[in-house]
Write a structure and sequence with these properties.
159 residues, alpha/beta, six-stranded mixed β-sheet, globular
Amino acid sequence: ANLVSLAAPDISLICNIGHAHLEFFKDLRGVATEKGDILTGTRNDGTVVIPGEAVGIDILRQKAGNRRIITFGTALENDVVAEYLGYCQENGCFKVRLTWNPLHESREFFWKIGGAHQAMNAGGAAAVGMALGLAPDDIVRGLQSDGSNSARHSIVRNN
């Protein structure tokens, strides 16, 4: 609440409600309550982007109030559906499918960042792009040009 009060955002994104954030909270609903303060600090005419399958989604929706809500996740009822399709040996990249349900559009693309959790991050970014009015092709181009070339995302095979 203190941080978001410094600048009321036009668009807020909560990437996830996860166990890594439990340090000061009793359970994941407590995490959702605290992270939900980001939403209450968003401009009244702003947009909030939230993980549609998160523990405490009811808390997030309540804290969003009358702001526009865009959801992302793996469930088909989300506004943006993110699917991790795995590793592609031919090009050394990972395949992701994003579906924008309100637009009835879907894109599959290769990405340098692997893992289902990273596909979810792509879904959140795609939902923010949708809130900004960006076209799916532009969003995918932006994701693909993330500049990530760190060894952190490299696959290492132990033989």
